[in-house]
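G., before I forget:
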Amino acid sequence: MQKYRINPKKGLEFGLYTLGDHLPNPLTGERIPAKQRIQEIIELAQLAEQAGIDFFSVGESHQDYFATQAHSVILGAIAQATNKIKISSSSTIVSTLDPVRVYEDFATIDLISNGRAEIIAGRASRVGVFDLLGYNLRDYEELFEEKFDLLLKINEEKVVNWEGEFRASLDDAEVIPRPENGWMPIWRAVGGPPASAIKAGYAGVPMFLATLGGPAKHFKLSIDAYREAARKNGHNPDELPIATAGFFYAAETTQLAQKEYYPHINEGMKRTNGRGYPKQQFAQGADPRDVMNIGSPQEIIEKILYQYELFGHQRYIGQMDFGGVPFDKLKNNIDIIGTEILPAIRKYTKG
Amino acid sequence: MKIVGLSGSTVGSKTRTAMNYVLKKLTENYPETEVTLIDLADYDVKFSDGRNYLEYDGDTGFVARTLMEADAIIIGTPVFQASIPATLKNVFDLLPEKAFLDKVVSMFVTAGSPKHYLMVEQQLKPILSYMKAQLVQSYVFIEEKDYFRKEITNDDVLFRLDRLIEDTVVLTETYTKIREIKEAEYGF
């Protein structure tokens, strides 16, 4: 775990992530300018650091209602504006980028931040980016696998020799600058069925698992499949960190938290995904066994601890800003995390 | 209430003839409903390539979005090679897995003979149920002999279609009310 800059003795890491969505607040119908949204994301990272949160990440999406297409640029700004918090992408679409450029960018962010940068690589859940950047959707799978492999190779080897289908070959190429310690954590983003978890396990790379809603036990299947695949392919699962990512929102009572966040999630998903979040399923999310961490501080603490016991993961990251949540509500959430949730989680999970 | 009439084939006239009757009656009997006809013969719909339906443009995007925004869908389909036409199946393939959640779907079928009477039960209904539609259980099966020169001449078929229209509207209203009452109970 040390290799991935994770110290299990300190307990479960807690982070925040944003997809960088840029959606109207459904309660007012107004959408803040992209400039304000980007600046608020940077400020959010600073506030998260001040509250003692371990990790902050920004996603890349090339479609309507998003503002962080150039997520690595925003992460550069966050690197400069913060001192302790780990920073990452959630996720970087390596399929449609050049892995050499991705590594150059993130190694640079790592140097700016004194060794706090990580990469989470994903395959994109939207495909508009393939048209925009000139890739063929038919290569969806192969583009990711080939480029992700190259990214990992660049991380391991100072001098790279490589040949592939989707990028010019590399002959004794030195990809510089190198990160602060010559190497940086690179995760694979995984969503949906265990099939992609198994791929991450086989490759022996740490896994970021999206857990948006439903019983926590359902996601345990992917986690077990990941560890099993790692073991079968000669990796030690005890040395591979797992992180989970999902909706988070805290308010005085669970009902108030649901009431405040539901319109944002529902309307935001309608715009970005074409379908709202069924209210019945959202209501069920209050159950302590559900993976959705929306509720009163006490209920969230109990849920996170239950998930920790079930998954044995090293990091949880929450998404609390989806769908145009006003900034004062986000600040309020960070206060609650810093004063109530973090102390409890650390107390119960530190070794 | 938004109701879409989906005529599922690019071939022939029987399905469209019946659809014309259904939509005319629907508009007459329920003038407050917003009725849209999608006859797949009028649109150039691409084959599904797995993308989110919002990311299709042109006719494909229009067809997918119109269906997703509907409260109810009345599907008219012929029987091709003992099944639904590929054009209709492709429309389902364009949509997300639970596309028909909170939607009512009703059906009528046109065919040359009664040989494939159970095609709807065995092939169309399982697809719609999987996509979470609330089904109007009774469907109308219309044969070649029920038509004369692009008009339905069998009163029994017309009566059945009238009932199909009524059931579609009443069930949509009912399910909407049930959902509203249930959602009000959640208190958020």
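Chain B has one domain: 2-186. The beta strands of chain B are 2-7, 34-39, 72-78, 104-111, 134-135, 140-143.

More on Monday.
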